[in-house]
């Protein structure tokens, strides 16, 4: 996909990062001043009395501009989507609008995308690549197996290009030029990346990787889920891929003309390679070590593996064998925040160093959010061991925007904090005084899954819902599992799930019966793929998709898919 021609000066990039993080406080002040200067004509800022003439821009900004969420900014962004070209949030027109995945709230959010955000993306990629390549040097003539899917942009009624954040990055004219020196040539032709059919694209990514197997240096997808899904798919289609390679003829499943033409150019009959792959696959025990078996020169597996991706790490490690798992960097559809500068740390230990010039960052102490007066602290004022909600101000018209991410400060890299992602703040299971986050749900599922693993069965995916159709209300947990087991085992799992929520409000409510018995609902195989298909139909990118861990009432269609596919259910007896 990407041609590698420019020289990349790894040491220079690292030195620049070192200098910037030593002066993080000053860089933050300069970044905010630059943002306010470039957007001084923005109507939004002028409405709060900011006109670019303040003696102390930082103090004026924090005292005059309120903390907001997407709800407060939605009317402004809608005007931009509808074609209003006046300086609403930014001093200059936005190049595109990004769509969030929509899995958290049941609907995608519109987020401005600008050339500055594109530059930020390239800067973060360069920084992360420098540290990663210092630890895991890749060959100049190597390739990358990249499970990248770029969905289509569409033009809004107001004439503005709209697409997912990943699509806006990949389709940006500066992307290829900016990435030339910091990425390996992709195994897959461009036509696969831009395929309108993600299933055909995935098959072709796998086939392309096999064709260049000896050159593959690393395996990448934006999210760990994407890599796991790719190799689960490989388990189902590998024999078909082997046939394609042996005969030199592409499977009839590939019907997109541009994709078929591009892939056919790569294929010639290769019975020897086909037999090698067949032998490798037949020799594996339960597909353990599949990735290094297929790609003997791969040095690592790379993708976002923290937060909501943690449940997939166990399976990813199974496929990766002894290959290192390297966590991708920390950001969101709203923009990038921090880079992984310690790539040898495991996903469970991974931290991310904030890059001080990507935006102006504030941190809302978790104990203060939601009650009383909220007083965020600056980038260099955070305390090690404390948890905060991230507040971002960027070049694309987001000012003191509450991201909804909870992070923990694990330490400092020079004078910039190193963050560990904890959970999404708004994904809370709550009926009365109980409050359980996505992280609490994840820990409960991990605990219960250990009982299931004793039967050689794994949890493929999961979600949850607060069921208040009965009195008292109760938690419902949806599981898709890899095989069948007896009811006693699943009843044990259900009880374990219930006991896994250790929030004091939940435990006391369960004991006094103001929260009903937790319900485990086992769904048929393929159910969570149907959920993914639903979100892809709404415009989500396959590469950007994240499974919703808590299905809100507003997410009625997802709840319907889950409930219609329940094959058995169990109620906890843990508090009887």
Automatic annotation (TrEMBL):
Record-annotated GH3 C-terminal domain positions: 440-553
Presence of keyword Translocase: no
Keywords from the named record: Ligase
Pfam families membership: GH3 (PF03321), GH3_C (PF23572), GH3_M (PF23571)
Domain GH3 middle residue range list: 353-424
Highest taxon above the source species: Eukaryota
PANTHER family (UniProt xref): GH3 DOMAIN-CONTAINING PROTEIN, JASMONOYL--L-AMINO ACID SYNTHETASE JAR1
Sequence similarity: Belongs to the IAA-amido conjugating enzyme family.
Protein name according to UniProt: Jasmonic acid-amido synthetase JAR1
């Amino acid at each position: 996909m990407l041609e590698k021609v420019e020289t990349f000066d790894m040491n220079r990039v690292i030195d620049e990062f070192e200098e910037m993080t030593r002066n993080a406080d000053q860089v933050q002040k300069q970044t905010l001043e630059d943002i306010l200067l470039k957007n001084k004509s923005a109507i939004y800022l002028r409405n709060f009395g900011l006109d670019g003439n303040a003696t102390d821009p930082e103090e004026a900004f924090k005292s005059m501009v309120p903390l907001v969420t997407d709800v407060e900014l939605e009317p402004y962004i809608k005007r931009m989507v509808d074609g209003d070209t006046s300086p609403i949030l930014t001093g200059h027109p936005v190049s595109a609008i990004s769509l969030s995945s929509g899995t958290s709230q049941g609907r995608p959010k519109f987020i401005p995308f600008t050339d500055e955000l594109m530059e930020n993306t390239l800067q973060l990629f360069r920084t992360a690549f420098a540290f990663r390549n210092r630890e895991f040097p890749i060959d100049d003539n190597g390739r990358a197996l990249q499970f990248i899917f770029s969905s289509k942009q569409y033009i809004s009624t107001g004439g503005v290009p709209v697409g997912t954040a990943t699509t806006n990055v990949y389709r940006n004219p500066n992307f290829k030029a900016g990435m030339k020196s910091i990425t390996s040539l992709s195994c897959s032709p461009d036509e696969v990346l831009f395929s309108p059919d993600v299933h055909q694209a995935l098959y072709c990514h796998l086939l392309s990787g096999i064709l260049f197997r000896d050159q593959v240096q690393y395996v990448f997808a934006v999210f760990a889920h994407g890599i796991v899904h790719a190799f689960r798919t490989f388990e189902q289609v590998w024999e078909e891929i082997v046939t394609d390679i042996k005969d030199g003829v592409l499977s009839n499943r590939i019907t997109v003309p541009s994709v078929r033409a591009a892939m056919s150019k790569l294929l010639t009959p290769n019975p020897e390679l086909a037999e090698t792959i067949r032998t490798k696959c037949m020799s594996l025990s339960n597909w353990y070590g599949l990735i290094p078996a297929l790609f003997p020169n791969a040095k690592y597996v790379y993708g976002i593996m923290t937060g909501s991706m943690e449940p997939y790490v166990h399976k990813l490690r199974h496929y990766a064998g002894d290959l290192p798992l390297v966590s991708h960097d920390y950001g969101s559809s709203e923009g990038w925040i921090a880079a992984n500068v310690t790539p040898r740390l495991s996903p469970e230990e991974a931290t991310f160093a904030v890059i001080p010039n990507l935006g102006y960052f504030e941190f809302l102490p978790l104990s203060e959010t939601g009650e009383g007066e909220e007083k965020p602290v600056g980038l260099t004022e955070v305390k090690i061991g404390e948890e905060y909600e991230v507040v971002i101000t960027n070049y694309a018209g987001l000012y003191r925007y509450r991201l909804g991410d909870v992070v923990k400060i694990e330490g400092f890299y020079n004078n910039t904090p190193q963050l560990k992602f904890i959970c999404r703040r708004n994904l809370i299971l709550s009926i009365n005084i109980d409050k359980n986050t996505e992280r609490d749900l994840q820990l409960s599922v991990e605990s219960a899954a250990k009982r299931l693993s004793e039967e050689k069965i794994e949890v493929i995916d999961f979600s949850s819902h607060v069921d208040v159709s009965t009195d008292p209300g109760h938690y419902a947990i949806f599981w898709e599992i890899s095989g069948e087991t007896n009811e006693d085992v699943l009843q044990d799992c259900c009880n374990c799930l219930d006991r896994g929520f250790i929030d004091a409000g939940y435990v006391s409510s369960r004991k006094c019966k103001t929260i009903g018995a937790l319900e485990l609902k086992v769904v048929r195989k393929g159910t969570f793929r149907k959920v993914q298909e639903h979100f892809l139909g709404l415009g989500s990118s396959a590469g950007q998709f994240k499974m919703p861990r808590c299905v809100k009432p507003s997410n009625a269609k997802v709840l319907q898919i889950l409930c219609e596919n329940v094959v058995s259910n169990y109620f906890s007896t843990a508090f009887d």
